[in-house]
Amino acid sequence: MAAQSHGGNRFIWQQAVPVLFGIACLFAVVVLLEILIRFGFINRFIVPTPLDIVGSFGRIIVDEHVGSRFLLTFGEALGATALLTVFGISFGVLLHRVRLIRLATETWIAAVASAPLVLMYPLFLVIFGRSALTIIMMGFVSALPPVILKTLEGLSSTRPVLINVGRSFKLTPSQLYWKILFPAALPTIFVGVRLGMIFALINIVGVEFLINFGGLGQLVNELSERYDLPGTYAAICFVILVSVVFFIVTERIEKWLRPGA
Amino acid sequence: MGGTMPSNPSVGSDSAGAATQPLLVVDDIYKQFETAEGPVVAVDHVSFDVAPGEFLSVIGPSGCGKSTLFNIMGGLLDGYDGHIKVAGETLRGPHASVGMIFQEESTFPWRTVVDNVAFPLEIAGMAKAERLDRARHFVELVGLDGFERRYPSELSGGMRQRVSMARTLASEPKILLMDEPFAALDEQTRLLLGDKVLQIQQDLKQTTLLITHNLTEAVQLSDRILVMTYRPGRMKRMVEIKLPRPRSSEIVGSDAFGHYVAQIWNDLREEASKGLKDDEARRGGTRR
Fold first, then answer.
1. Same structural domain, A152 and A247
2. Contacts (Cβ under 8 Å, ≥6 apart) of B266
3. Which end of chain B, N or C, is surrounded by fewer C-beta atoms within 10 Å?
4. For residue B154, is pLDDT > 90?
5. Which chain B residues are within 8 Å of A255, Cβ to Cβ?
6. How far apart, in whole angstroms, are the C-alpha atoms of residue B222 and residue B202?
């Protein structure tokens, strides 16, 4: 019993150490930055001190309505992620199943992945108007290629022996997909979804900034126009918070869908 | 039994199952692969049959077509000449009566031990409570009780291979095909798992066909051993193992066991040498 409790403590300790180490590193970087700025190694008119940034949080939360802006950007990112998960995975499956389409389009999709699609925002403005839908569609389109490619990679790299196990149990093609190929590919698919999510968030905040509409991107734009640098960096911290929340949620979903990793 | 046996003069007589209908008939199987260097005959007119409850091993050097034969018997490979009958029925693709255990680790990493074992029952549409109950029985049969809720990543290689075995047994196949299931394991684990296989085979009276290149394993487990030639894979000899049953790994120390190993090695050595020379020639060719 004592040994079991000892083992449990060790497990908790092993889980906690990396988290604590990460926090400690972040804290060390912040302290270092504070020192470098205070002693004039970095110009404080370009980079505000971390303490100034922390001090501006209260102001931008109350005066700039960060809560509602956060929810708007979060909602847009959620919408784009939902779309790219549904359509990205479906396209990936289609490419895996139909060789002709795969051979015809895989290179193009890879090329689109590295194209700066954010520059197409005027076209999207014409199609969808100056609305949240434009921002969601920009995020969705620019984030689609990694999800498609990673879904295809995950399905294609399923170990042949697992497929043979399914065949030996006389699984139908649909059962083979849902019971073996898809669960086997899930870790790679989730890598694609996370990559897509990063692409989507960058584009969403970028377009908000460019068309001066919506959530945190617009706030960053406004604050930087006013040369409120501590406020600008504080708003950027909220953009990072959106990303962190998404990462945590996708990790939980992955563990729920694909236990045993 | 021997309808197909006289086609090969080097095949020894076999008494096992002589009075009963064979459960598996492998009749004049010929399989050729097209490769960049031209056609390669993997299996060349191989015929034998397996009686109910019999344990037959197919042994031969690497490249003799053992795994091709395994895939053909499991219905995973087509485009061959000859035919295979399972319980009188001609094989066309995977058959419910044939269970397969593969050489590579084949557990599903996202399923627990008991869910892995329950997999074929789930596919068959069995109710959850019933299939988990039955799966637990097979988990216990392979000696993994207490590990039901563990994931494969938490188990050793030998334990994972036992999960695969339990999963295949849970589908209650009439014939169990095993393709070098212990190849990736160390010698001690291999011998101990051999004991487990013997015990299960005896308990369930399971008709079993083992593909192997391990002499000790083949003699320890089998009623008969089919020795194959190096490429193209032909039948060289069928050896009947008249060691007493029930057996365990302790039998490997007996004189009779040593005699069988020496006898089969005698047949196998020439074939293994051919394989080695062929391999060296190919590697030499690549260097040039």
1. yes
2. none
3. C
4. yes
5. none
6. 12
Range of the domain at A253: 50-257
CATH code, domain with A152: 1.10.3720.10
Window from A91-95, A197-201, B36-40, B163-167 with minimum mean pLDDT: B36-40
Residues A43 and A155 grouped into a single domain: no
Nearest CA distance, B72 vs chain A (angstrom): 11
The sign one gets for the Cα dihedral A190, A170, B222, B138 is positive
Place of tokens 């086997």: A184
Q: Which of residues 149-178 of A touch B (CB under 8 A)?
A: 159, 161-162, 164-165, 167-171, 175
DSSP collapsed to 3 states, A130-156: CCHHHHHHHHHHHHHHHHHHHHHHHHH
A7 confidence band (pLDDT: 50, 70, 90): low
Residues B226-229: contacts with CB within 8 Å, 24+ apart?
A: B226/B48, B226/B56, B226/B57, B226/B58, B226/B59, B227/B59, B227/B60, B227/B264, B227/B267, B227/B268, B227/B271, B228/B46, B228/B58, B228/B59, B228/B60, B228/B64, B228/B65, B228/B66, B228/B271, B229/B60, B229/B64, B229/B271
The CA distance from B160 to B154, in Å, is 9
Do A79 and A129 lie in a common domain?
yes
User: What pLDDT band is residue B62 in, cutting at 50, 70 and 90?
Assistant: confident
Q: Which class does domain B1-97+173-251 fall in?
A: alpha beta
**Pairs across A and B, CB distance < 8 A:** 57
Q: Are residues A21 and A83 in the same domain?
A: no
Domain with CATH 3.40.50.300 in chain B: 1-97+173-251
User: Is the CB of A260 less than 8 angstroms away from the CB of B111?
Assistant: yes
| Residue A180 touches partner B, C-beta closer than 8 Å | yes
Could you report the predicted ipTM of this complex, rounded to two decimals?
A: 0.84
**Structural domains of chain A, count:** 2
Asked whether residue A151 falls in the same domain as residue A197, the answer is yes
**Each residue of A150-193: pLDDT tens digit?**
999 999 999 999 999 999 999 999 999 999 999 999 999 999 99
Q: What is the DSSP string of B91-115?
A: --S--TTEEEE-SS----TTS-HHH
Query: Are B170 and B121 in contact, with CB atoms under 8 Å apart?
Result: yes
Cβ–Cβ gap B99/A164 under 8 Å: no
